Amino acid sequence: MTLKTLATHYRFKVVLAVVLLGFGVSYSYWLPWIAMPVVCCQTAPRPVDIVVANGYGAMDFATDMAQRRQYDHFLLVQSAPNRTVAIGVADDPLVVSKRNLLRRGIAEERIEVIPGSARNRWEAARQLQAWLRRNPTRRVHILCDEWGSKSERVMLDRTLEAGVAARITVQGVPDPRYDTSTWWRSRRSLHAMYAGYVSLFYTMAVGEPEHLPAYLSADEYAFRFLNEARSKFGGEPTRRSGRIGDLKQADIQSAESSK
Q: How many domains, the chain?
């Protein structure tokens, strides 16, 4: 190896060390840019209605803005019935959201429910589109989790009519526990950023599922589950109709009679 080659090799190492040192010293300036592709932060026009989609702290953020009269009304999109709600295990998310808004001082006349039975966010977007068609002068500002805000924007643009999508703005609400400016400081924020990229890539590459399973009530689900179990382990399938309690009582009587 000649002296000139050694000098070139040495200069390369020095330059590389300086570059790495610069990146190490200024990491707090360039690391946040890695999270920027998954974030959408659009400004809300006025007057505007608001939809609280999801996200830790989104409800507090929304009510704070509403109390300053920057938002006019709250829109709550009704989702499909849930089995856990039907049997009383969990509260209806719509009721919980409305209760939280009332508790935070939002007047009931400022809360509007968009009826429907959305099973995913694509169907919820179409419910919102139908509402905007009925209200051609209204605009909507969606608040959602900061890490999923870009995915939400892409989904709206690809699902809704261009004229309707243009009347919707999306703003990602930073999580007070961790946000895009400090995502490298905790494992939870790393997981959140990973989930944000996965959601964005899925929305862009796959989009809305073509086939969704048919909704089964709690009773229908129990009958189907028991019938599948009986067909696998032996026993006559249940053909009677009724509530879960009736089925359970019939099973008890059948077990007692077989003793």
A: 2
